[in-house]
Structures are given as C-alpha cells and as structure tokens.
Amino acid sequence: MHRRAFLLSSAGAALSALAPATGVLAADEPADFHIAGILAFSGAYGIIGKDMRQGVELAIADRGGKVLGKPIRVSWEDDETKPQPAVQKATRLLAGGAQMMFGAVGSASTLALQGLADQRKIPLLVTISADDKITRPNGSRYTFRTSNTLGMEIRMCLEFAKVKGLKKIYGVTADYQATRDGWELFASEAKKAGIEIVGNDYAPLGNRDYSVIVDKMAKSDADGIAVMVTGNDAVTFLKQSGQVGLNKTKTQFGPVLQDETLAAAVGPAAVGVYSGVRYHFTVDNPANKKFVEAYRAKYNEWPSSFAGEAYDGISWWLDIVESTKSWDREAWVDAFAKSTRENSLEGKKVMRACDHQAAQVGLWGVVTEGQAPLPPLTMKITDVFDASKLFDVCS
Amino acid sequence: MSTIVIGLSLSFLLFLLAAGLTLIFGMLGVINFAHGALYMLGAYVCYQIVHWTGSFWIGLAFAPLVVAALGAAMEVITLRPVYNRDHIYQLLLTFGFILVIEESVRLIWGLDYKQVPTPALFSQPIALFGSQIPSYRLFIIGFGALVSVLLFLLLDRSRLGMVIRAASSDSEMAQTLGVDVSKVRTAVFALGSGLAALGGVVAAPLVPIELGMGFSVIIDCFVVVIIGGLGNIKGAIFAALLLGMARAAGFTYAPEWVELITFVLLIATLMTRPAGLFSRKGRAA
Amino acid sequence: MSMFRLDQVLMSTAIAAMIVFAAVSKSEESLNLISLILIWGLFAIGFDLIFGMAGMLSFGHAAMFGAGGYALALLAPQLGFVPSLLVAAVAGAVLAFLLSVFALRVSGLFFSLLTLALAQLVYILASTKLRAFTGGLDGIPGVLRPALFGVDFFNNRNYFYFLVVVFVIGVAIMAVLRVSPFGSALKAVQANDVRAEQIGYHVQRLRQCAFMISGAYAGVSGALLASLMFYVSPQMLHWSTSGDVLIMTLLGGKGTLLGPVLGVAVFEVLKEELSQFTEHWYGILGIVFILCTIFLPKGIAGLFAVFGRIGKGASK
Fold this sequence. Notes:
The structure holds three protein chains of three kinds. By secondary structure, chain B is mainly alpha-helical. Chain B is built from eleven helices and two strands; from the N terminus they run H-H-H-H-E-E-H-H-H-H-H-H-H. Helices cover about 75% and strands about 5% of the residues of chain B. Chain B is globular. Chain C has helices at about 5-25, 30-55, 60-80, 80-105, 110-130, 130-135, 155-180, 180-190, 195-200, 205-230, 240-250, 260-275, 280-295, 300-305, and strands at about 140, 230.
C-alpha cells in the first residue's frame, strides 16, 4: 500500500473524525474490515501460505466480501517462516489499522505474534500452527485456534496404535521441544496401554539422512514405527525408509506425517503410511461438500488441509463478529470464546473458553492410490476419534 | 558392518556435494556461497528432465551440463569484472546469485515439492551383512568413487589440470606463457557449478526437492571443504570419509549429538590444522 | 586529518533526516522501520570496527547479537531494563572474548571460518541442549521495554526516542574510537600486521580489544531488537544473521563510520518497499546486490565519497 495514499487517507480520517457525528456508528466505524494476514509465502512452507490464502479468499467471497456492513480487506505479508519478519510486518499492518491478525504458519512466528496480539489487544486467529503452547490455560486472551494441536495428534497416534493392535514401537523424533514433548506423551501413555517401546532416536531438525536409524528400525522386532517428524523431515524419512522396504514389515504412522502434498513429495513409498489428518475433502457432511465444490470450481484443485482449516476458521470467526453487531474487539473476543460451530467442515467444533482452543474430532487416515479425479496419492480416512478422547477436561 | 556401508554412502554423497565448492575455492579463490543454490538447481533440472523423458540417467547426464553452462555465464557476466577487487566483495555477489537463483526456481517450478523417483535399476534393497541396504546407496558409493578418481586424474595427471593449477597459483606467469587465464577461470567455475548440480541430482531420490534444500546443505559442504583443506580434492575425499563415518557412528549410538560432534570436529580442525587435516601444511599463521 | 569531509557531513545529514522523518511523520510504519534501521545500524557500526578498520572478517557476530537479546529477555524482569542492557553489552563482550581466544589463533580466512563454526555451535546449543534456558527453537516471548522516569515505553514512539539516544551515544563512542590512537593502531594492523608488531603494537591484544568492543555493540543491539519485537529466538544466533550484517556493511561501505548505517537503511527499505509491490522482491534484491558489487566498489559510502574529494588526493 502506498505510503502517500495511506498518509492521505489517515489525514482524511482524522479530519472526518473532527466533523460532527451524523450517527453514532458513522464516526466510530472504520472504512473497512482490515485483516493482517501474516503467512509463509516463500521457502519450504510457501505452499501452505498459498493454500491458506485461497481458503480465506473463498470464505470472504462466500459472504459477499463484507462483514458488519463494510468490505473486508486482507493485507497478505510473507514472514519467510521467521519470527522477526512476522513481527515486523504485523507491526506495520497493525499500525495501519488492522482489526485482527490471521496466521502464522510456523509455530515460532505464531508465538511471536501472540506477544503483539496481547500488547495491542488485537485478536489473532490461528488455523494451522500446532504447538500446544499457543493455546493453554491462562494463555493469551486474544489468541484463538480452530485447528488441531500436536497434543491431539499424539493422542490419535496412541488410539491408532491400540486399535491396530501394535505391540512394539520404535520411534524417531525431531530434536525440537514440541516433538520431544509429543514423544514423551506418546511413550508414557503407550506403556500404560501395554505397548512396549523398543527404541527411540532423536534426529536433528532438518536431518537429511536417516539411513542408520532406518537400519536400526529394520533390524528391531518392532511392528510399528512412530515417526514424530514433520514437513521436509517426514518426506526425507519416508523416502529413505521406502528404499529398504520398511513399510513391508512394519506399520509407519505419525501425528502430522502425511497429506496429499507430502505424499506427492515422497512418491510410491508413501502408500500404507498412517497419519493424523487435519481436514480432508472427503469428509461427508453438507457444509464440506458445498465448500469442496466451490473450491474446486474456483481454483481447479482439491482443497488441502491448510485451505480447509483456513476457510473454516475465518468463516467461524467472521460469523461471530457479525453476530456481535459491533466493532468492539473485546466483544468479539468474549463472544468467540463461548461459541460453538455446528456446521464446521469437520462437523461440530466447540471453542473452549479455558484455553481458546476449539475442541473437535480427530481425523486419521492412510495414504492410498487414488483414482481420477482424485490425486494419484491421496489420504483415505480410516478412523474418526471423538473429541473426548483427545482433549483434557477444561479446568 | 552395515553401519560401515551406510557410512561410506554418506561419505561419498558428502564428497559429491563438496567437490565443486573446494574446486572453485582452490582454483579461483572464490568462496562460492551460491553453491547450495546450484545444487538445488541441479535437482530441479533433473526433475524436469525425468518429467519429460522418464529417465533418471538422462537427467544425471544432462542436468550438470545445463548448470555448468549457467555457471559459465554467471562467471563471465558478473565475476570477471570484479576479480581484481577486494575478494570480500565477491561474497556480496554470490549472495546475490543465491537470491536470483531461488527466485527463478520459484518462478519456473512453483512452491510445491517435486519428486524424483529412485531409478528402477537401483530401487530394490540388497541384503548385506545382515541388513537391507538400499542398492541406490551402493550406487552412490560406486559413482562417488568414480567421480573422485576422475577428478583426481583430471587435476593431478592431465594437461588441462596442469594448466588449471598453473593459472591458479600464478596467473600472471601463466598468462605470459600463453595460457588464457580468463577462459580457464570460466571453465573452472563451470566445472564447479556442474559438480554442485551433480550432487543435487544424486541426492534427488533421497531428499525432498524444495526451495530450501540448498540452504540446508551448504553448511555440510563447508565442513567437508574446511576439514579437507580448501582446494584439496584428495583432502575432500578423506574429510568426507571422516565426516560420513563419524555421522554413521553418531546416529548409531547417540543421534542427538550428531550435529554437535560435526561442529566440534570442525572447530578442532580449524584450531590445530586450519589448512585442513589432510594438507601438507600445518598451522596457517 | 580532516574531520569535516563533505561526504561525512552528507551521510550524517541523510541519517539525521531519516530520524527526523520518523519523529515527525504520523506513520507508525515508518517509525517501526526506522527503529529497526537504528538497531541494525548500531550492530553494523560495531561490526565495522573489526571488519572495516581491523580487517577481520567475522562470520560469528550473530552469537553476540543473540546473547545480548537473551540476556535482556531473561534478566530484565529481575534487574530492570537499563541494567540488563548493560549486562547485554557485557555478555556480548565476554562472548566475543571467548570466541577470540579460539579464533585469533589463526588468521585470515580461517579466522572467519572458525568464527562461523563457533557461532553455529552456540546456535545449536541454544536450540537444543540449552532449551531449558532459551526456550529452544520457539524462543522467549514477552520481552520487556524500559521503565524509566514513568514514561510508557510500550508506546513505540517513546521507545523510538530511547533508541535514538542509544544510537547517538553509540555513534559518538565509535567516532571517538576511530580517530583515537586505538583506531590508528587498528588501521596499522590491518595494513600490515607484521610491521605493526615490529613497531611495538601488541597486535593480538589490539585485535582482541576491538573484537570485544564490537561484541558489546552486538549485544546491545540484540537486546534492543528483542525489546522492539517483544521476542527473542535462536534465529538471532543463526549464521544468516551474521551474513545479513556483513551484507549490509558491504553494501553501505566498509571502513567508514556511517556507511554501514546507510547500508542497513537501504537494505531494510528495499525489503519493506519491494515486498509490498511485488512477490518477486527476493530476486530483485539479489539483482541489486549483484549490480552494487559490480558498479559500487566502495558501497554506498563510495557514492557520497565522490563529493568528498575536496582538496584531498586519492581516497584510502
């Protein structure tokens, strides 16, 4: 946005504020509903940012581009998956009068934005970052998350292991606090359920060679391989375990191990791998069917989990904002904290007031070969875990 | 025992990655920070060739040639004007290359992952020493050994190698003796770029092909090059072996310490034999 | 030695204009941008002491920068902001000293590579083994602002003025250092260290001293950045941060007092403005670097120096 244009419009706004109010609303209301969209548009997570943007833009189009009677305007900025640019750009957009923030992708950037949200009292809507710290009791008043937490996804792994009858598990974990915590949780719960942990190796984040670890796994008597890595590391691991045919004798699974994008990056070795699924276009309910049709019509591709979660979260949020009929952000926060969405794309989601995390079902699936028009490698939902199994009770 | 075989494959992959970097530094005195970006470009061009022809082997043959040509162009247009300046400004130049190459890759291929499948010839594992070793890793060992021998023969035993070494150790003298030093420099930069791309092609079936891949590999390359000695091909082979084996052992017994071990090795080398563990010289200063 | 060269006056004027613009303009965007420029400018000025004046290329300054940030984040709640800021400076100097003990045993290229390795070691430790202190890869949110004289420094405009004060002090100290005997000694060391040793300078001690001062500047600027963003993360310790300050200094012109600040300004402004106009700002920035290398051999300060050739012979 041109600085000159901004200065002129802010001068104009200042002048108009001096004019006598013609109505209570006219003097208080901004000219539009400005959303600061801070996402990763470059680098390894760039594809996620692009999908999320598409989801949000469809959601806005679906409501006629307006909320509270004013047009919605989104400023999209690239945080390069680093916290400093995220905060820098968000600060600039907030200074320009954004009503809320949407983002980020990487958990580190999201955590950095939380500080800003609390300091400026601007709501932050998170629809992808999975780190448990983002929503916790006595956490940020202004942050809300409508998507999965890592804790949920770990619990799904546990439920899956029980359901599948896995008896011995070998794990590989990214050396990163969130995944380490996730492994600790999984291992302790698994032991309680009578599952034996025969080994676990911590690999550096961004590790490019798992061959030694894969070899150890192949030689062990484990029947299940818990892969607590995400993104690029997941692709690397599965490519390399596929080269020794690990999937033939052992079941590989993980909390955020695969989706259509990652499966395409892995290739044929992805078939038969189980993973938590944040959102899927095959979920069978009226709201989702309508969304998927509209998304395919507009973008000519299947909506990824990033697009679906973004669409769902922003639609829910904007509906609540609309329902308060006010521009008071505190009212939005209070209303959203108590809200329930009956017709979310994944069924029912309930916002928990204690930690601002949406309670929801957990989707779990396996990578299979798809017949056209589905992608060549696609997720098939095999289990839907109830929210009560995945979330601690709100205290 | 299987750990040793895996360690060897790690080593030769590391050597293939680092060979181009050490060559360019040794012969041209340029620290080519764009090395990682050229590696990435090699992987993407290979993907494209596989996409068009279905053959990994054609990709292996041609992707490095394409990138070598690009490297030659880069050298002629941008590096040549600045050779006589303070070498430090070359850093800024190579940083600029990285940004331009990454942006170009993004423009041409987009943001999503690309995938190069393991060539059919080497897609099945082989049972060896009680483990299933991917045959592709054995290919890496063989191919890496071949490349190292060829490079060594080229630089140490061939006439072209002699010319290159002469031009790098005393360019003015070589010029007066009739060597076209500018052309030699371009050739070396092209060769180094091609080698970087070769590393990218060989790594393509093993790692995700995405925009950040160059960034993640550059530190490893530097470690091998420094431990081996800048410009020292034999040194690079030994350093790659050392690092590969150390990593294989690390992953077997203490995976969380692997990164630290790598850096401690590097620091120890720089402090005791900074010219490289395998150089003839001792302390540099 | 002439103190009033026209190019220095022009550069100071440019920087002063930038500060005044931020102070006067209603735009909080400019305020934030120029705050960032002041902070990184301070970092770059300190970096140039060893890079431009002493001729040592350090790839490890991110370690001191991040150490300062973490020092402030962890200590400000207990000790208060300004004492923690001083601790950040000391932390930067001490860490620089430790790095120099190892790195100064070798010289030239190997010195640079060793600083890179040592700093990256610090990064790995902070991200993994020391995560109990540093919060690991997720960093530490909620860094404080100063609490002085009852002024609300959470107001960005007030914090900006605080930054201006610190920046001016930093520039003044560096200006004095550069023209002092210490500065001349460093220039002698860069020109010919063997000769300098023979004349009687303690070359290693001089280098170490310069390195520590440079580290203190890095520590302070890291702390100020953490406070600006209310957040500190291991990203501040990563080698790409060292690379950034090097690029900015080169772009601006090494060996000059204010050149690095101009380099920072151009870099940050380009990044901000380009990214708003085009998705391809990354590639365009790369082209800018390439063109600057080829056409501006002395960086941006070189452009100003064209004006400064009044009555003087060839520049250094």
